[in-house]
Amino acid sequence: MTQCIAKETTDFFRVTTPMLIFTYHKDSKLYDVEFTESIYPMLQGCGFEYRFQNLMFTQAVLIGQEARIYSNAVSNSFGEGMEVIVTHSYGLLSIHQHFQFYDSSRYFLVQLELEGADFIRSNYMSPLSAHGDVFSLRNALSPRLLYVPYDNDKWIRYKAQELQECGISYEVTAVYDDVSRNGYVIGSISHDHWKTGINTHGGYGSLSMLTIYGGVADATTRDTAMPHGEVCGKQISSPLVLVGYYEDIREGLIDYGNANTLYQPRLPWKHGVPFGWNSWACVATNLSYEVYDEASKALAKFQEQGFENNETVYLNFDSFWDRLTPQELKQAVSTIHSRGQKAGIYYTPFTCWTQNFDQVVENTNNQYTYRDILLRDANGQPLPPISGGYPIDPTHPGNLMRVEAMMKMIVDLEFDYLKVDFMSHGSCEGIHYLHTISTGVEAYCYGLTHMLNFLSPENAGRDIFVDFSIAPIFPYQFAHSRRISCDVFGQIYDTEYLLNSLTYGFWQNQTIYTYNDPDHTCIYKCVWRDVSDELEAETRLLASVISGTVLLLSDDYRIPEAFARTQKLLTPELLSIAKKGTTFLPVEMATSDRASRIFYREDEDACYVAVFNFETTTSSVVIDTKRLGQLPDSPSFETLDGLQTYTGEKFTIHLEPKQSLLLRAKK
User: Fold this and answer.
1) How far, in Å, are 19, 238, 272, 550 from residue 266 at the CA level?
2) What is the overall mean pLDDT for the chain?
3) Measured distance CA(194)–CA(150) in Å, rounded
């Protein structure tokens, strides 16, 4: 039996749970929420917005009408609780506000539904739009608003900005005080029709406006030619939105990730963290059978010192694997299988890389050219290129044939790993071949459902690891991992960029994705960079280890120095930490668009702290152990080699240029 208690008077309808008090005001049609444990004032003045027949409407049009309010107990994947439905009629529509409350949840869920007597459509729906003193972080010493990017293309960054530096965050945001870590998480947990934006305005310590809505389409979502498509039907719904309060905003973001998987489970994976090698950073377009063979031999040596998981590693061809002949490709896979290793390959299912649109699409029996399968705008013109590639319509039969043939090749040649890249192209807004699909996200889900069907264990006869590279964060249920950032190479500024994504995207690991992917780990020389110095290399490797983590090396092992350095740096202690697949948490989350310098992880028997210097000069970092986990007073930390020890509630670490350290305190 639920612990949620409903009370109705002539003026309001109220729900009280162990975590919050929700009040719907019948006269203003607005609702307030007071979180029981919050040190801040209540969230107040919340209504809705939607666009219909090219006009915008809010709850204000309902003032003077009598609401029909229904409540009933619910029991589902979120737990035991209560659903409240507030219904009004306006014009041609019935308007339903759905609220869900759960006994053990620190959040509530809200969704707006429109119902028509006939077919209706909208490309903008907000279940929560508030104006006034919306989120007030009273007495906050370091108030912050989290900007989350839509995808990871073009080296975009997360940002923890001051509240007056507002704008649009994508799918999720957080409003918090970094000193106390108290704050709110607001985000969408349904990702089947809409791209969700969170638009805010504010000043120091408070927000004066917050609207979370389905229907964002702009340059950041890679939509420059078309607005968001219209969601259609007799009944249409906004994104399902979560709003929660947390004493530690990091726990809140993890809770948000887990709430997503309660709504839509992630793609299961049971074989542990993939260890291996990827070709892109070290050889890029110069891929050959020789490079692959030498990498396989080198990894066989590294396996002997513990660089493996479940007694295997993956050797992954990246882009330009088609420089090999079909016979060379088949031979390469056969060779590494003979060494007990697994093979990986690369594909871009929704991107056209040729400007010759009259080129016949492969594996379509000459039925289609690329001109046929390109995604188009309302005027029938192909969408402009993104990062050099033109978006393909995921629903077009020519692309379905093309993708099917590639997936069957992957299965037939016994590949066990697929890196899928430039996925944002597939979620662009446009006019789709399949007319029942009207939004970019709908098309994206359609294309990926088709693709993943061929790779399922039932059809492939084995488990194939699917890793998204450049891709939207959501939807997530089509991949085991996603690269947490854009391309990362071996220099110190590459590492700092990667750790910006970990600072604010750590929560994706083991929630919506089984593992974060910190990209290929180049610790000697990237093809586009100078040779990394050894401290820089150690820092790049440590950054990957603390990320979650898919651990793929990327050096050319025809170079003896690359082999020697890798063999030296792959220590048993680091590898054992990486094998757990558990992310480190940022200690500070008020770094603007920079990375935190301190991360930590608590295991059963130890607490680990990773400390970084991203500068080319010496630097010092102060560690306040009270900002870490559950530690005894005056804990003792030591480096993994035992040569340095640090004690006390606070201590200072001096770092050389580009240096990092990993410390351990035994419990």
Assistant:
1) 27, 22, 15, 17
2) 96
3) 12
CA dist 537 and 525 (Å) reads 9
Please give the biggest Cα pair distance in the chain: 81
Task: Specify whether the CB–CB gap between 512 and 260 falls below 8 A.
Answer: yes
DSSP code of residue 19: S
DSSP character string of 267-325:
PP--S---EEEESHHHHTT---HHHHHHHHHHHHHHHHTT--BTTB-EEE--TTGGGS-
* 322-354 tens-digit pLDDT: 999 999 999 999 999 999 999 999 999 999 999
Please check the confidence at residue 132 and state whether its pLDDT lies above 90.
no
CA distance readout (Å), 446 to 174, 190, 321, 587: 30, 15, 27, 39
Upper half-sphere CA count for residue 195 (Cβ side, 13 Å): 32
Output the pLDDT for position 205.
Answer: 86
551-553 and 275-278 strand pairing: parallel
Residue type, 328: E
- Are 152 and 488 in contact by the 8 Å Cβ rule? The answer is no
Provide the pLDDT for residue 167.
86
Sequence-ordered list of residues with C-beta below 8 angstroms from that of 274, at least 6 positions apart, any chain: 309, 314, 417, 465, 467, 481, 515, 550, 551, 552
Residue 508 CB coordination number (10 Å): 25
Give domain 5-263's CATH number out of 3.90.1330.10, 2.70.98.10, 3.80.10.10, 3.40.30.10: 2.70.98.10
Q: Which residue type sits at 411?
A: V
pTM of the full predicted structure?
Answer: 0.97
Angle at 26 between CA 21 and CA 32, to 5 degrees: 30
Rounded to an integer, what distance in angstroms lies between the CA atom of residue 541 and that of residue 558? 20
| Across 247-253, average pLDDT | 97
**CATH for the 598-666 domain, from 3.30.450.40, 2.60.40.1180, 3.30.870.10, 3.40.1190.10:** 2.60.40.1180
Residue 660's CB: how many other CB atoms inside 10 A?
A: 25
Tokens coding 418: 């697929």
Separation of alpha carbons 69 and 217, rounded Å = 34
Domain boundaries, the chain: 5-263, 275-582, 598-666
CA dist 167 and 157 (Å) reads 14
DSSP characters for 93-108? EEEEEEEEEETT-SEE
Distances, alpha carbon 395 to alpha carbons 45, 350, 390, in Å: 41, 10, 15
Looking at the DSSP bridge assignments, the partners of residue 202 are 207
- pLDDT, one tens digit per residue, over 149-167 is 999 999 999 999 999 888 8
Please provide the CATH number assigned to the domain covering 275-582: 3.20.20.70
Return the closest-CA partner of residue 114 out of 215, 238, 25, 242. Answer: 238
Structure tokens, 339 = 């060494």
CA–CA dist 149, 498 (Å, integer): 14
CA–CA separation, 43 and 26 (whole Å): 17
**pLDDT reading at 632 higher than 80:** no
Percent of the chain with pLDDT over 70: 100
